[in-house]
Amino acid sequence: MKQITVLLADDRTIMREACRQMLEGEADLCVVGEAQDGRQAVEMVKRLHPDVVVMDIAMPHLNGLEASHQVTKAVPTTKVLILSAQSENVDITKAMEAGVAGYLTKHSSVHDLYRAVREVHRGKMFFSPGICRPRHRLHPQAFGRTGMINHRAAELTSRQREVLQLVAEGNANKQTAAELGISVKTVEKHRERLGAKLDIHDTAGLTRYAVGAGVIDVPLFGKPGIRNPESRASHRRSRRWEIIF
Asked: Do 174 and 60 share a domain, yes or no?
């Protein structure tokens, strides 16, 4: 029997370990790698070509939506299954536009996870029970958290959204350049173009914009995009599983 190869992408070790244990308990499922953020996930997909990526939607450095967009573009045969605590139509619509094959909430059952991985591998779409697939398709950054259409965000390139996230997370230009493997001057040019497109010319304004556009999470602890570390200790493996944020 040919196994379905799976890559796990989540910034929390406890979540990856829990998913690995659950998936590897099934004879037809095999976890071939774990990524700690979206950028690492994209690199590992290019190298490993897994059948399915189980992708957390909120990760530092590169969020799950942008990572999904890059994965589906670079390796079309790999199917992306988003794993999220959110079930709002806005988030689901953005995920669909990023090219994902399924959307699973963290309140789903373990059996929903098994079924989701198998269904998307077969080329089908999968959504957690109770979620309605959106009928309309818009750019992944076209909506803000308020649900209002954000036309300026839709004009940003993939690289500009990467720079926006890193800047909003508190990275200096030098750190952003090192993270993306580009020069500081190139980062400065991207920031200039971001400022021109968005008409925002300061870091605080870009951070507020990134939160509103859903590029990073609302800050809960420390700098934007980083979860309260105390929340990472709360996990229970059972037929029903849930992560506390």
From this structure: no
Contact 96, 70 (CB under 8 A): no
- How many structural domains comprise the chain? 2
pLDDT grade, residue 156 (50/70/90)?
A: confident
Residues 77 and 174 grouped into a single domain = no
Does residue 17 sit in the same domain as residue 101?
Answer: yes
- 170 and 211 both lie in a single domain: yes
Higher pLDDT pick, 236 / 51: 51
CA-CA-CA-CA torsion sign (212, 214, 218, 223): negative
Instruction: Please tell me whether residues 48 and 109 are part of one structural domain.
Output: yes
- Reduced to 3 states, what is the DSSP secondary structure of residue 204? helix
Q: Is residue 15 part of a domain?
A: yes
- Residue 5, classed as helix, strand or coil, is strand
- The closest of 96, 32, 34 to 59, measured between CA atoms, is 34
- Residue 245 domain flag: no
Please tell me whether residue 88 adopts helix, strand or coil conformation.
Answer: coil
Q: What is the mean pLDDT of residues 200-216?
A: 77
β-partners of residue 102 are 81, 126
pLDDT (mean) for 67-76: 92
- DSSP for 9-45, please give it: E-S-HHHHHHHHHHHTTSTTEEEEEEESSHHHHHHHH
Is a pLDDT exceeding 80 seen at residue 216? no
Q: For the chain, how far is it from start to end, CA to CA, in angstroms?
A: 38
